[in-house]
Amino acid sequence: MFPYLVLAQLVCCNSSVLQPSDSPFGFLDVFNMSVDWVGYGYAALVASGGVMGYVKAGSVPSLAAGLLFGGLAGFGAYQVSNDPNNIWVSLGTSGSLAAVMGKRFYGSRKFMPAGLVAGASLLMIGKLSMALLQKPQES
Predict the structure, then answer these.
(1) CA–CA separation, 41 vs 120, rounded Å?
(2) Backbone angles phi, psi at 15, to 5 degrees
(3) What residue spans define the domains of the chain?
(4) Best CA proximity match to 80, nearest among 69, 65, 71, 91
(5) Which pTM does this prediction carry?
(6) High-pLDDT (> 70) share of the chain, %
(7) Is the pLDDT of residue 49 over 70?
(8) What is the dihedral of CA 36, 37, 42, 43, to 10 degrees?
(9) What sign does the dihedral 55-56-57-59 (CA atoms) show?
């Protein structure tokens, strides 16, 4: 009976089917938490871009900036995962990167890496803005 309840929880996404307190296992808490996978992917993109800049060109500032902003984006995704209304770190990080990398893309007209990061940052700003503008669901 227990696996069918877990399957029902996954398919229906109805939190009244099985509460985490009803389960002897704590892993069911994951089903009620929405994870910001897009935010974590964006953080990985930014951090890996910094690492690639170091590997290909030996750029220590690129490595430092990539790891710093990737870490901030990851922290912001963690905050959004815990509280969907807490978007400010993610919004600040993606806004800063959109401005800096957008300026670099405008000056160089090279898509890699400035255009890619600027575009991804603009998409993150759009995603976070939509989350901010959505009305809370009434119970």
Answers:
(1) 10
(2) -70, -10
(3) 2-32, 37-133
(4) 91
(5) 0.73
(6) 73
(7) yes
(8) 80
(9) negative
